[in-house]
Design a protein that fits this description.
2 domains, YCII, about 130 residues, YciI family protein, Dimeric_a/b-barrel, alpha+beta, about 30% helix, two-stranded antiparallel sheet, 5 strands
């Protein structure tokens, strides 16, 4: 079974780190990642860009509204994610509209630029879900 480990922290706190502090944290994380990789447990490592780069497609029934920023309501839970390779934000919004149509009910889709720090190391045991 695969698990997504979603890391939460204050963007203001992390953004205020000096380069030396950020390098120290990345080195500490790298040590943990190396251990997990040696066990064949580490998949891709990604860090979402700041929420200021987010776009949300909110839907209510058949109506869809595109908003700047992350605007999911707190009564909604983060349930999963898609990684899409799109030419532009407009392309990503178009693809998200298709997902919204395919998924019944309300909800929100936060569209965030994604930066891959490391691909899955050789030996990662993750298999396709099914």
């Amino acid at each position: 079974m695969l698990y997504a480990i979603l890391c939460y922290n204050s963007e203001d706190a992390v953004g205020s780190w000096s380069k030396a502090e950020d390098d120290r944290v990345m080195a500490q994380l790298g040590a943990v990642e190396d251990g997990l990789a040696q066990k064949g447990k580490l998949g891709p490592v990604a860090r979402l860009m700041n929420t200021t780069a987010a776009t949300t497609l909110r839907k209510s029934g058949n109506e869809q509204i595109v908003l700047d920023g992350p605007f999911a309501e707190t009564k909604e839970q983060f349930l999963g994610f898609f990684v899409l390779d799109c030419e532009s934000l407009e392309d990503a919004i178009a693809a998200t509209r298709e997902l919204a149509i395919a998924n019944p009910g309300g909800g929100a889709y936060e569209i965030r630029p994604l930066r891959i720090f490391k691909p899955a190391p050789e030996g990662f045991r993750g298999k396709a879900l099914g």
